[in-house]
Amino acid sequence: MGSLKARILNWGNQFGVLAFLDSNSYPSRYSSFECIAGFGTSQQHHCHTLDELQTMHNNGKDWMFGHICYEYKDLLEPKLNSNKPMVHGFPLLQFFVPDTVCYISPEGDTLTIESYSDPYIVYNQILATDTQPQSAIPLVQFQPSISKDAYLNVIETLQRHIAEGDCYEINYCTGAYAHCPQLDTVAVFSKLNQLSPAPFAAYYKLYNKHLMCASPERYLKKTGNTVLSQPIKGTARRGNTPLQDAENKENLLADIKERAENIMITDLVRNDLARCCTTGSIQVNELFGIYTYPQVHQMISTVSGSMTNPDRFTDAIHCSFPIGSMTGAPKHKVMQLTEKYETMRRELFSGCVGYISPDGDFDFNVVIRSLYYNNHNHKLSWCAGGAITWDSVPEKEWEEMRLKAWALERIFAG
Predict the structure, then answer these.
(1) The CATH number of the domain where 345 resides is what?
(2) Which domain holds residue 47?
(3) Which of 7, 24, 198, 359 has the fewest CB atoms within 10 Å of its CB?
(4) Of 371, 273, 288, 269, nearest to 329 (Cα)?
(5) What is the arithmetic mean of pLDDT over 229-255?
């Protein structure tokens, strides 16, 4: 199946616009597809707000793929304003109706192709496509946007905000840039997906703007009248031996700080979804679930509810974006603080990428553990961070951020 997915992606890379979403065979009762992708668009209609997205879908009842940037928050919350310059240039919100959609069933035994072209021709073209990327990955040296000392100082400043009662938890992020004149972004994604396979991996291309994503986190999924979110809060390294790995996993589950962070964000997501769901329908399907990935263990909780008006599917996004695991609590205040203290614009980082089905169901990831590239200005970057609480140890927060960054930077280390 891996070779088939590689052929699908490499075939689709001929188009200027595409979204390729890969579950990497992670078992989940919530998965609708092992892989789903949309390629090309001959429609000239574009949407840049949630209202326009709802109207466009109501009129067409078609597949739609696209993204929402973190800074779309400024259109949802009063008194929020992001003034830092854009580097990669992703629009705040954009979706497209693809000319071709390919999806593999959760069991991995069925490939479906829907296309304005002849699906059999598309299928034969996919089978004839090479499975290997076209170019080698260059050596790249990233330049951090903030020094370690400055990072530690910001953590201490944020803890003073917590001590003064401004907030309870705040997600602070930083990043790094590199100048890279030539980059085969499919090759980079393929390597990232090989080294860090994740259940919400994505390769997304919007002409000159590229995302290579190894996200373990679901932002929001709608099935019928049910919406479901799975915030992550809590990270531990993998062990060097099976015994050490099991100990790290048990320690994460028992860690009071990590549990406190997780339950705070779970409550925030419950409150967000309650704004668009019927009274009494919100439930926590799973609390403190421990999930294992190639580099880390993660603590994940699952929250769901029944939408008051499922036909107005964008209500769930409007009430919950951006996901609380990438902001903190209280949400409005911490988004003001991150704008003040973070050194770079998040853009697509902390936003989401996903699809909307013809019947109005959808699934969106949280864009984390990702690389971003613009082949006009040749800027390559990553962002990473973590949740800061009163109990946080600044040095450990730095180490957690570097662990996430290392999983991205090593792709370019040769």
Answers:
(1) 3.60.120.10
(2) 2-129+138-228+307-412
(3) 359
(4) 269
(5) 94
